[in-house]
Design brief:
This protein is mainly beta. It is built from 5 helices and 55 strands. Strands 1, 4, 5, 8, 13, 14, 15 and 20 form an 8-stranded antiparallel sheet that branches. A hairpin with a 4-residue loop joins strand 36 and strand 37. The radius of gyration is 29 Å and the shape is globular.
Length: 761
């Protein structure tokens, strides 16, 4: 075997050894290629060049999976539009995928390509679902030929692989190699030729015929690190491919396969810390998309919280379970993805929402919605166990799925095809589960379905746990998601109460968190509410949704987690690189008057930095004079206002000095309503945050007491321990940082305290 790679016939080579900057050299033609990347120019954060990481030789280029790619112009002036032909082509490249794409419309996430499949032209090397990969070519005469990696030769995530594809038209062969070894071979007609794709650039990390999502996001892009991409116009022999692989090992890695450090490839939140709209003390993924946080659980001194996550980009697609851990439910650490779709018959198409509980040995287990589009229905309830009993890892990084679904929906079990978001709990008698669905009866609405098990693996259907009358309450919709049941304790009459939370979806549904207080009938596994009409915890508009909950075993508190949706266009989410974050954890409890009490958890006080203001018994004008020097977009505010002659009173936040931009939070005494007026929130033409949001708040003569958390675009307002109003604000002006108290009469400022807040990251 030769000791050095023979570069005869090398027509393109990207070494990616720059290590910095927004361009890279193709060394054969000596051309400089620009690296497309969303943050080369940035509207909301500091501009940044693409991330470079350790490669197998020198540096490698990390592609983000949705915005970064290279376009290299290779097409020459074709005579009369006639394509050229290739009798031989070989490609070798080192890749470390961060994610596996879903494979919409059967297309590959391209590593390198210059193809037009419709015209049966060009070539494409790329990945498909669950790490399978393929080399595809368009042959003279109009045939499209594909060769695929066999089972067991998928490209692993977060690890290096050396991928080679060889087209030998003269001999009529096409071959794949992985880490220097041949893994697949297909016969072609002898003297075959690849028809080059007329007028098409070569793309690295982007399919040059990608599908679009939401008219903004190009699918089929490579997410991960690429290094040492070489393309030859000749056939590399098996010996040469093996030599190319071994040479890197021998010269750079002591003769062993290169190891990738997780920190080199993980999503990095550092860049987004300077995004002027991204919350900094609310929990969020490092980057890209999230929806519901869910499955909170406490184990070995730490709280774990999971979340629906697309690691490929800031859009809803191919959902995984992200994972955070915390000692106080405030300061969170990012952990690797806990659960991902895999090449199995359990959940190949998505790991959707669920919950966490304990098994018979008091070890954490996860119940999730298994997405399998080849099954009917495509949603079932499945289980994953931690590997703690083997590795004693208190971070619970690794999880193993039970191979079969535990609960499969049958006809007569709710609305067939809508069956998701298991909420599971355990007591001394066994395990219980609620699953979101509908009643399954014409004209009736959403329902939580009930199941019971003695061993956590075999489940018995008990019927509807609770369903509401959609004719009386049409906003509760035909389907419920994310049911949550929490114990509240004994009321003044000695009755033990529970809290039931649901999130309606479907035609006519108001996508908010609705709740009832009532009694659990454990024998029949059903729920009887104290009053039929549902209530809202939060009176904002879809910024407080997707509930999950737990009983904190340390304090006994009942804790609710939610998603605070971003209220932005897909275009702005693309530009920003992130979508959504979690709401602050809240504690819920049964008040003396029988109503539900809510308050932010007290651990949030650990975020307080310098106290900016503290005043008592001031007039509005006196207080506003003191407020002039208080500015910020990361603040905690506690405020009590005595109405006096005012019928409307509150506070303006995120206010520019001239009032051109501002958001007004106020209470209307005559209407008993809490409002957020966003008519002047932003001048940015692309932002959605406009209009007035609000809902009912009965104060019964109490002073207005507001507890407000400002965290860049996040605004959470807690009023008198009874309701919250969560909203989003995206001012266009960087000086929209001021505060001003407001009223239509002469309210008295009984007290006001303001703190700067620390980031949790």
């Amino acid at each position: 075997m030769s000791n050095t790679t023979d570069n005869r016939g090398l027509i393109m080579h990207w070494a990616f050894d720059e290590g910095t900057g927004a361009s890279t050299l193709e060394s054969v033609s000596k051309s400089i290629n620009n690296i497309q990347y969303v943050f080369n120019q940035a509207e909301f954060t500091e501009p940044s060049t693409p991330p470079w990481r350790h490669g197998v030789k020198g540096s490698g280029l990390l592609f983000d999976g949705y915005s970064s790619y290279i376009a290299h112009c290779v097409h020459r002036e074709e005579r009369n539009g006639e394509p050229e032909y290739l009798s031989a082509l070989s490609i070798g490249v080192w890749v470390a995928p961060r994610t596996h794409e879903w494979g919409h419309e059967g297309k590959l996430a391209a590593i390198v390509n210059r193809h037009n499949r419709d015209n049966k032209q060009g070539y494409l090397l790329g990945m498909f679902r669950h790490g399978s990969w393929s080399f595809q070519v368009g042959l003279e005469g109009g045939e499209w030929k594909e060769i695929w990696s066999p089972d067991g030769y998928e490209l692993p995530k977060n690890d290096w692989s050396y991928v080679s594809a060889v087209f030998n038209g003269h001999e009529g062969e096409i071959k794949l190699y992985l880490n220097g070894r041949e893994i697949a071979s297909e016969a072609l007609p002898r003297d075959s030729r690849i028809t080059e794709a007329v007028g098409t650039d070569l793309f690295i990390a982007k399919n040059n015929h990608s599908s679009k999502l939401a008219k903004v996001f190009s699918l089929h892009m490579f997410s991960g690190i690429i290094d040492e991409l070489k393309i030859y116009s000749r056939v590399l022999s098996a010996e040469e491919v093996a030599t190319s692989y071994q040479e890197v090992l021998d010269l750079e890695h002591g003769g062993v396969h290169p190891q990738l450090q997780y920190d080199d490839i993980k999503l990095d939140r550092t860049l987004l810390l300077t995004d002027r709209h991204r919350p900094q003390y609310h929990v969020s993924p490092p980057a890209h998309w999230m929806n519901e946080p869910h499955a909170p659980i406490y184990f070995e001194g730490q709280y774990h919280l999971f979340y629906q996550h697309n690691p490929q980009g800031p859009y809803f697609h191919h959902i995984h379970w992200g994972h955070w851990v915390s000692e106080d439910m405030v300061h969170w650490r990012d952990l690797p993805i806990a659960l991902a779709p895999e090449k199995d018959q359990l959940a190949p198409d998505g790991i959707w929402s669920g919950s966490a509980t304990y098994d018979a040995d008091s070890l954490p287990v996860l119940f999730f919605t298994a997405g399998n589009d080849s099954a009917s229905p495509n949603q079932s309830v499945a289980l994953a166990r931690s590997t703690y009993s083997e590795d004693k890892d208190i971070d619970l990084v690794r999880w193993v799925k039970h191979p079969e679904p535990l609960i499969v929906q049958k006809n007569g079990m709710g609305v067939f095809g809508d069956f998701r978001d298991p909420f599971v709990w355990k007591d001394e008698d066994g395990w219980y589960a609620l699953v979101g669905s509908g009643s399954g009866i014409e004209g009736e609405g959403g329902a939580a379905l009930a199941f019971v098990s003695e061993d956590m693996l075999n489940w018995t259907y008990k019927g509807s746990f609770y369903q509401a009358d959609i004719r009386k309450f049409p906003y509760l919709g035909p389907i419920w998601e994310l049911p949550v049941l929490l114990p509240l304790g004994t009321d003044k009459q000695g009755d033990y109460k529970h809290l039931l939370l649901v999130s309606p979806v479907g035609a006519g549904a108001d996508v908010e968190v609705f709740y009832w207080i009532g009694q659990l009938d454990k024998d029949n596994l059903s729920f009887k509410p104290d009053q039929e009409e549902p209530q809202l915890i939060d009176v904002g508009d879809f910024h407080f949704t997707g509930p999950s909950g737990m009983v904190d075993p340390v304090t006994g508190r009942k804790i609710i987690f939610t998603i605070a949706q971003g209220d932005r266009t897909s275009e702005l989410e693309y530009q920003s690189g992130w979508a959504h974050n979690g709401g602050l954890p809240i504690s819920v409890y049964l008040r003396e008057d029988g109503r539900l009490g809510i308050e932010p958890i007290e651990e949030l006080q650990s975020l307080r930095d310098k106290k900016r203001l503290s005043l008592r018994d001031k007039s509005l004008s006196e207080a506003n004079s003191l407020l002039k020097d208080v500015q910020g977009d990361m603040l905690e505010i506690q405020l009590e206002l005595e109405p006096g002659s005012a019928k409307q009173l509150g506070i303006k936040i995120r206010r520019s000095p001239d009032g051109e931009e501002e958001t007004l939070l106020y209470y209307d005494i005559n209407e008993s309503m809490l409002f957020a007026d966003r008519t002047k929130t932003t001048l940015h033409s692309g932002e959605n945050c406009k209009g007035v949001q609000g809902g009912k708040l009965e104060l019964s003569g109490e002073n207005l007491k507001l507890h407000i958390y400002l965290d860049r675009s996040m605004v959470e307002t807690y009023a008198n321990g009874l309701k919250s109003l969560t909203t989003r604000v995206y001012p266009s002006r960087k000086d929209a940082l001021g505060l001003e108290l407001w009223g239509d009469g002469e309210p008295l400022v009984k007290s006001m305290e303001i703190w700067n807040m620390h980031s949790i990251w």
